[in-house]
């Protein structure tokens, strides 16, 4: 029998897909890739997969790797898709594909199956990542297959199929929205959120942040330490990459920091409304930027800022395992070498204030920048500087007089 690896969550969609793949003659190896999604009993998910006929089932925990090798380099780039979205789901998909492909190689499976729809971005991220890692892999995306959609036009048919096959699922035929969670963020979309004039802070039952109105009436300070642009500590305590994200999720979340509402442009072309909460990563972006202002020179930051939107697009689209991304990650590792130090932020009812910043590599020199008299800056030097800067304008003004 042909065999495939299925990115398996144990929810309605992947439970149905597991049964359907077996109906098509596949041996299925289920892989629950742990990226920090909520789950009361992961062993129960594996048992369910076995009970439903999976050839094998396993859990692969990639949370530390995802924070260290995927999320933190994106923070170093200050990459935000369309200037807002912090890429929490986009970052998770290539490492899920990687984990599934590693299992496929181990068990000798020739195909990789996933439950992403044919309308969304995740199908792109899964496929582009998988094919880059193994160009020979067969991708099975049931939601893009006409016979699967004909069999399961909606949730009612999926629930009925599970009842017929004795597949236990917790699902209802209608939901006000859908959500996807990992250790970096939670995304909310679909359902009532598809009406873009609906208020995005009143529909989701937020899981990582309190509302700013319910946050404490007192500012909470948090100090984040960086080495070469990578977060290494919170409030003076050295922590693993995952522990840093988790700690900042806790601190920022209780202060109502990190909610985002965006109408974004999906890779496949349509616009989509999403509501996100990413408390810890929001704080990391803010702290990292403040430290860069001390430690990086103007031209390097300007170059990074010109490229960052392209990095964000490539991550969002799913082009993680490419020569271009390899080069971009190598560039940012080198560019971030001086970004070492600490930043103290004040969190208050959804807002972030800068309370302090320091670095052994600071380029800020008060003697030069001071507006007081004296110092090491000779103001007369500006005369020649501005004469040279203004030379092209003066020549143009002579040849092409402007009306004023």
Automatic annotation (TrEMBL):
<dbReference type="GO" id="GO:0004055">
    <property type="term" value="F:argininosuccinate synthase activity"/>
</dbReference>
<dbReference type="GO" id="GO:0000050">
    <property type="term" value="P:urea cycle"/>
</dbReference>
<feature type="domain" description="Arginosuccinate synthase C-terminal">
    <location>
        <begin position="177"/>
        <end position="394"/>
    </location>
</feature>
<feature type="binding site">
    <location>
        <position position="115"/>
    </location>
    <ligand>
        <name>ATP</name>
    </ligand>
</feature>
<feature type="binding site">
    <location>
        <position position="187"/>
    </location>
    <ligand>
        <name>L-citrulline</name>
    </ligand>
</feature>
<dbReference type="InterPro" id="IPR024074">
    <property type="entry name" value="AS_cat/multimer_dom_body"/>
</dbReference>
<protein>
    <recommendedName>
        <fullName>Argininosuccinate synthase</fullName>
        <ecNumber>6.3.4.5</ecNumber>
    </recommendedName>
</protein>
<dbReference type="InterPro" id="IPR048268">
    <property type="entry name" value="Arginosuc_syn_C"/>
</dbReference>
<feature type="binding site">
    <location>
        <position position="264"/>
    </location>
    <ligand>
        <name>L-citrulline</name>
    </ligand>
</feature>
<dbReference type="GO" id="GO:0005737">
    <property type="term" value="C:cytoplasm"/>
</dbReference>
<keyword id="KW-0067">ATP-binding</keyword>
<dbReference type="InterPro" id="IPR014729">
    <property type="entry name" value="Rossmann-like_a/b/a_fold"/>
</dbReference>
<feature type="binding site">
    <location>
        <position position="125"/>
    </location>
    <ligand>
        <name>L-citrulline</name>
    </ligand>
</feature>
<feature type="binding site">
    <location>
        <position position="121"/>
    </location>
    <ligand>
        <name>L-aspartate</name>
    </ligand>
</feature>
<dbReference type="InterPro" id="IPR048267">
    <property type="entry name" value="Arginosuc_syn_N"/>
</dbReference>
<dbReference type="Pfam" id="PF20979">
    <property type="entry name" value="Arginosuc_syn_C"/>
</dbReference>
<feature type="binding site">
    <location>
        <position position="122"/>
    </location>
    <ligand>
        <name>L-aspartate</name>
    </ligand>
</feature>
<keyword id="KW-0547">Nucleotide-binding</keyword>
<feature type="domain" description="Arginosuccinate synthase-like N-terminal">
    <location>
        <begin position="4"/>
        <end position="168"/>
    </location>
</feature>
<dbReference type="InterPro" id="IPR023434">
    <property type="entry name" value="Arginosuc_synth_type_1_subfam"/>
</dbReference>
<dbReference type="GO" id="GO:0006526">
    <property type="term" value="P:L-arginine biosynthetic process"/>
</dbReference>
<dbReference type="InterPro" id="IPR001518">
    <property type="entry name" value="Arginosuc_synth"/>
</dbReference>
<dbReference type="GO" id="GO:0000053">
    <property type="term" value="P:argininosuccinate metabolic process"/>
</dbReference>
<feature type="binding site">
    <location>
        <position position="121"/>
    </location>
    <ligand>
        <name>L-citrulline</name>
    </ligand>
</feature>
<keyword id="KW-0436">Ligase</keyword>
<keyword id="KW-0963">Cytoplasm</keyword>
<feature type="binding site">
    <location>
        <position position="90"/>
    </location>
    <ligand>
        <name>L-citrulline</name>
    </ligand>
</feature>
<keyword id="KW-0028">Amino-acid biosynthesis</keyword>
<feature type="binding site">
    <location>
        <begin position="7"/>
        <end position="15"/>
    </location>
    <ligand>
        <name>ATP</name>
    </ligand>
</feature>
<dbReference type="InterPro" id="IPR018223">
    <property type="entry name" value="Arginosuc_synth_CS"/>
</dbReference>
<dbReference type="GO" id="GO:0005524">
    <property type="term" value="F:ATP binding"/>
</dbReference>
<feature type="binding site">
    <location>
        <position position="276"/>
    </location>
    <ligand>
        <name>L-citrulline</name>
    </ligand>
</feature>
<comment type="similarity">
    <text>Belongs to the argininosuccinate synthase family. Type 1 subfamily.</text>
</comment>
<feature type="binding site">
    <location>
        <position position="85"/>
    </location>
    <ligand>
        <name>L-citrulline</name>
    </ligand>
</feature>
<keyword id="KW-0055">Arginine biosynthesis</keyword>
<feature type="binding site">
    <location>
        <position position="117"/>
    </location>
    <ligand>
        <name>L-aspartate</name>
    </ligand>
</feature>
<comment type="pathway">
    <text>Amino-acid biosynthesis; L-arginine biosynthesis; L-arginine from L-ornithine and carbamoyl phosphate: step 2/3.</text>
</comment>
<dbReference type="Pfam" id="PF00764">
    <property type="entry name" value="Arginosuc_synth"/>
</dbReference>
<feature type="binding site">
    <location>
        <position position="178"/>
    </location>
    <ligand>
        <name>L-citrulline</name>
    </ligand>
</feature>
<comment type="subunit">
    <text>Homotetramer.</text>
</comment>
């Amino acid at each position: 029998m042909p065999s495939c690896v299925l990115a398996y969550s144990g929810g309605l969609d992947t439970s149905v897909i597991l049964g359907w793949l077996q109906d098509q003659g596949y041996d299925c190896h289920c892989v629950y890739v742990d990226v920090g999604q909520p789950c009361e009993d992961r062993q129960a998910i594996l048992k369910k997969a076995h009970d439903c006929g999976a050839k094998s089932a396993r859990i692969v925990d990639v949370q530390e790797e995802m924070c260290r090798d995927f999320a933190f380099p994106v923070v170093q780039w200050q990459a935000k898709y369309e200037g807002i979205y912090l890429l929490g789901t986009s970052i998770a998909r290539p490492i899920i594909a990687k984990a599934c492909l590693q299992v496929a190689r181990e068990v000798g499976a020739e195909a990789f199956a996933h439950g992403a729809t044919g309308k969304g971005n995740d199908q792109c991220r899964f496929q582009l990542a998988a094919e880059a890692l193994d160009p020979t892999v067969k991708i099975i995306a049931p939601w893009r297959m006409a016979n699967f959609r004909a069999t399961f036009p909606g949730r009612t048919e999926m629930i009925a199929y599970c009842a017929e096959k004795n597949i236990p699922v917790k699902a209802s035929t209608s939901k006000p929205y859908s959500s996807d969670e990992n250790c970096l963020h939670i995304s909310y979309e679909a359902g009532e959120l598809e009406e873009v004039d609906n208020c995005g802070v009143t529909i989701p039952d937020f899981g990582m942040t309190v509302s700013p109105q319910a946050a404490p009436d007192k500012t909470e300070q948090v100090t984040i330490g960086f080495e070469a642009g990578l977060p290494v500590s919170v409030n003076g305590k050295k922590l693993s990459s995952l522990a840093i994200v988790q700690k900042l999720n806790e601190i920022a979340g209780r202060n109502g920091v990190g909610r985002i509402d965006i109408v974004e442009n999906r890779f496949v072309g349509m616009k989509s409304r999403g509501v996100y909460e990413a408390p810890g990563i929001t704080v990391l972006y803010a702290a990292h930027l403040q430290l860069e202002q001390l430690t990086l020179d103007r031209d390097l930051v300007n170059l990074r800022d010109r490229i960052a939107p392209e990095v964000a697009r490539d991550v969002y689209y799913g082009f993680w395992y490419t020569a271009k991304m390899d080069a971009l990650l190598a560039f940012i590792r080198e560019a971030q070498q001086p970004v070492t130090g600490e930043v103290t932020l004040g969190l208050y009812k959804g807002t972030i204030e800068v309370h302090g910043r320091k670095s052994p590599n600071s380029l800020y020199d008060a003697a030069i920048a001071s507006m007081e008299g004296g110092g090491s800056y000779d103001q007369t030097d500006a005369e020649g500087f501005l004469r040279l800067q203004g030379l092209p304008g003066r020549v143009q003004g002579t040849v092409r007089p402007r009306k004023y």
